[in-house]
Each structure stands twice: as structure tokens, then as C-alpha cells.
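Q: How would the C-alpha cells look for this protein?
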Amino acid sequence: ETLLSLQQQTDKRFTVYIGDDASEQSIDHLIDKFKNDIPIKYHRFADNLGSKSLTKQWDRCLKLVNNETWACILGDDDCLSENFVECFYRELSNLELQKSKLLRFATLKIDEKGAALGNIQHNPKTQMAAEAFTEKYYGSKHSSLSEYVFSIASYHKYGFRDYPLAWCSDDMAWLEFSDGQSIVSCNEAYLNFRLSSKSISGTLNNKKKDAKRLFFRDLV
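A: Here is the predicted structure in C-alpha cell form.
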């Protein structure tokens, strides 16, 4: 479904980098199915790094990126609306004008079967990262990794904090990657963010508490 949502993009000016984390399940048949419709660069890693450090898996996937200046770490169970890339290019001049390092898209939570869990969440056209985090912390808004497109230069400057399960690693990234500038939001396109019993977001884990403790230590 994720690859299908990429295939259906109205603007094809993007590259899909797939970093296979030594999965026990082969996706060769999926690569063959979609490779003629979307530009896919596939790399299979010899060791399963994500089980030890998910942020380090993100890092080595981002090392596969060639000359792009913007990137999105798209969860392999999340999907994009068909105008996602089109809206990115539409907002590019605004990002440059605002000197913004982050573009945030609207989100729709979905369950394991793809059914909507509530309504699409829209965001302010521009917002400081601290305000966006405050809204998440107090529960008025949710936030996910996949809904952000970020500047590669800002990523190289700050990197991802290596918290357990990468829990809160994205929260800290947006606070740091924004580099004191506003987050620009696009509400015309959205991400389908999947919550399931197989995902970190959809399960209880004591490591999340450890990650939060480390996150707030660094934040304070």
C-alpha cells in the first residue's frame, strides 16, 4: 500500500530509497512490480540494525540518498495522498522565503485495515517547533515522523538523538532541525499514519518511558 501510494503521486519528481533492514521477508516481488513506475533504489543491509537502534537504521538509510536536498522518512506502513509530492513542490518557494527547514503535512490516523480513526488533522500555516511540541505534549495534536519533509542540511547539522525505540527522537529532531525558524505546513495533502498492534506507536513498552526520560533530560 505504501508503494502504491507512491506510484499514484501526481508529481513523479522523487526517488524512493529502500533500506532493507535484513528482513526475513523478501520484497523482491514488490520491487519488480513498481520499479517501472517509480524510481526505486533498493539496498539490503546484511545485519538487522533497527532492532538495536532504530535511529541508526534511519541514518544508514539516509546515507543512501544521492543529491537530494530534502527527504522524508516514510514509514513502511504509512501512505501518502496522491498530491503529497505535488504540494511539496508548490510549497518550496515558501520554504525558501521563510528560511524554513521543515514542511509538515496534514495527517489522518488509520487502523491496521486502513479505516480512518477520526478526522484529518490540519496544522497552522506557520508555527514554531516549540509550540507544535507543546500541543503534542498536552494532547491537543498528534505528530509523527512520516508527516515531515526535512532539509538534508539541517539533518547533517543535528542528526537524530539515539533514544530507545527512537521514541521521542523525531520530537527532538523537529525542535533542532527547525533551527529557530518556523515550520511551514501544507494542509492540502496528507499522510495516512497507521496505528497497529505491530507498530511501536500502537504498543506499550517500558523502553518508551526510558526514552521520554532521556528526551526531557536533553530538552531541559
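The first strand starts at residue 16 and ends at 20.

Strands lie at 16-20, 40-44, 70-71, 79-80, 102-110, 126-127, 148-151, 183-194.

Upvote if useful.
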